[in-house]
């Protein structure tokens, strides 16, 4: 004897469950349909499909009225839970997009986090206590890679020479990068500068430094590397080599001077300027918290 085939039960839709809740809470089908903003015919068809999917008759007729059967109590209780949870989720998503809840993953280079934007970070935390702000401090290249992998919502980095097509940037500020001689040395002729302790090869700032040094005719002999500005500054102080740092991390205020003045003064020489940008993916979901954070950085 052949085994009878049973059709798999189709899951009811949120819309169909909301129809059931509306009918249970309204005096008539017409009132329920009006509250939902649908026609009575559409409401009836939706409920008929719900009955088909759950495999149970939910209504019986009393005169011209459709009345819920006792057997539909469990289905109605389930529908109320699902509809309520869906409303809560919809409200939460709205808060997330409006920047009032959720999580914001921000990447920053050290100078941005410590020197340029610490007050903006504090302000955002105070004003958005329900947003979980996750801050990562790393070199620009690493942050851009994490942004492309979807691990960050935005990244404040040194503007690269070539920007990935998937990324868009907004300029935030420009800052001087300055030559820092070893302690006791003066910034004399360019030909005498070096050897160097610099950021690692591959970093955006390192590429800018090497390009400008070669343009000026300096020898680029690198004897040590570090991502940490304080380590580079200490190696220069100890006489390991010359370095180039953002002015805010060099330990002295830079000054643009004539060649004669440079040889007589100890202040660092401005080598170039670098631009900090906030990078975001072009194809991204709405994120109100990220929008508000970027506005703080720009403002």
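-> sequence recovered:
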């Amino acid at each position: 004897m052949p085994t009878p085939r049973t059709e798999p039960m189709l899951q009811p839709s949120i819309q169909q469950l909301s129809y059931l809740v509306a009918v249970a809470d309204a005096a008539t089908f017409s009132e329920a349909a009006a509250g939902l903003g649908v026609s009575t015919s559409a409401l009836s068809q939706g409920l008929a499909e719900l009955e088909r999917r759950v495999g149970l008759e939910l209504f019986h007729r009393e005169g011209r009225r459709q009345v819920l059967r006792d057997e539909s109590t469990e289905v109605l209780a389930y529908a109320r839970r699902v509809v309520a949870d869906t409303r809560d989720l919809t409200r939460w998503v709205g808060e997330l997009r409006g920047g009032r809840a959720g999580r914001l993953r921000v990447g920053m280079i050290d100078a941005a986090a410590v020197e340029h934007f610490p007050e903006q970070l504090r302000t955002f935390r105070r004003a958005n206590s329900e947003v979980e702000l996750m801050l990562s401090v790393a070199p620009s290249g690493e942050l851009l890679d994490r942004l492309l992998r979807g691990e960050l919502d935005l990244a404040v980095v040194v503007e690269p020479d070539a920007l990935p097509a998937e990324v868009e940037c907004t300029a935030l500020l420009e800052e001087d990068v300055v030559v820092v001689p070893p302690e006791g040395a003066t910034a004399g002729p360019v030909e005498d500068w070096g050897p160097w302790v610099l950021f690692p090869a591959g970093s955006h700032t390192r590429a800018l430094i090497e390009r400008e040094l070669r343009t000026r005719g300096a020898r680029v002999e690198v004897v040590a590397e570090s991502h940490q500005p304080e380590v580079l500054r200490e190696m220069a102080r100890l006489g390991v080599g010359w370095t180039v740092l953002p002015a805010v991390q060099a330990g002295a205020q830079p000054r643009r001077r004539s060649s004669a003045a440079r040889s007589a003064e100890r202040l660092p020489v401005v080598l170039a300027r670098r631009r900090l940008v906030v990078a975001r993916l072009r194809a991204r979901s709405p994120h109100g918290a990220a929008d508000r954070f970027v506005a703080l950085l720009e403002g």
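Residues 82 and 88 are 10 Å apart (CA to CA).
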